[in-house]
Design brief:
By secondary structure, the chain is an alpha+beta fold. The chain contains six helices and 18 strands. Belongs to the PhzF family.
């Protein structure tokens, strides 16, 4: 059996930047264990598994090398990009995905691909001792939603130079930890805020660019900065840019994508 496969760099216009995701297009249902094995073999932060439905929408599931997750932005963007590029969807056709987080959509826009995701605002939380020790700093703010902790720190430099203790961070009872600050004002990039995201509990020490993290970051910084539209930079070694807008209980996030590999799985 052969199955179409692509690797797409998401939230970037340049190859080998942004966040790579594997996109696997299934013709029939697959067992969860098999999908987990494929994700482990691909060894990327996420592998997306798509299967077309009768109405032209797709089921979509996301797996890290170690676990299935409830929400993933970059692999959804990569999936939509691949469906349009490969001709499975027409250029003007909306991509519709049935997921563990409900119906998610993607549309082609001037800035690339725009995702419509649920907002996941955080509420103030007491930081576990393991979290403070793993980060090695005193946060300005700590919040939590159903998936992650969000930690605001004092500066962009702190975000960029942070070296967490991944072993200790993986002991925190959460999917992941998002560290963020307001962007430096003396640069020409025009970013409103920067972030990094760490998920050692699900096998990804640092995720290069995390769409689902911005479901928390967008409403947080909209409230702090009082801006309708936000430009975000995820300051991993690969880096990625997201254009954000909060509309009620939804977050619209746009970014670009580049396909770097197409092939087949022979399994």
């Amino acid at each position: 059996m052969t199955i179409a496969l692509a690797v797409v760099d998401a939230f970037t216009s340049q190859p080998f930047r942004g966040n790579p995701a594997a996109v696997c297009l299934l013709e029939e249902g697959a067992e969860e264990g098999w999908m987990q094995n494929i994700a482990a073999e691909m060894n990327l932060s996420e592998t997306a598994f798509l299967m077309r439905q009768e109405d032209g929408s797709y089921t979509l599931r996301w797996f890290t090398p170690q676990a299935e997750v409830d929400l993933c932005g970059h692999a959804t963007l990569a999936s939509a990009h691949y469906l349009w590029e490969s001709g499975h969807l027409e250029a003007g056709q909306q991509a519709r995905f049935h997921t563990r987080s409900g119906l998610l959509t993607a549309d082609k826009v001037a800035g690339g691909v725009q995702l419509n995701f649920p907002a996941e605002p955080v509420s103030p939380a007491v930081a576990p001792e393991e979290l403070i020790q793993a980060l090695g700093l005193i946060p300005r703010y700590v919040g939590r939603n159903r998936m992650d902790y969000l930690v605001e720190v004092d500066s962009e430099e702190t975000v960029r130079t942070l070296k967490p203790d991944y072993m200790l961070l993986g002991q925190v009872e959460t999917r992941g930890v998002i560290v963020t600050s307001r962007a430096e004002r003396n640069t020409d990039a025009g970013y409103d805020f920067v972030s990094r995201a760490f998920f050692p509990a699900v096998g990804v020490n640092e995720d290069p660019v995390t769409g689902s993290a911005h479901c928390a970051l967008a409403p947080y910084w909209q409230g702090r900065l009082r801006k309708e539209e936000l430009l975000a930079y995820q300051a991993s070694s690969r880096g990625g840019v997201l254009q954000l807008r909060v509309e009620g209980d939804r977050v619209l996030m746009a970014g670009q994508a580049v396909t770097i590999l197409r092939g087949v799985l022979e399994v």
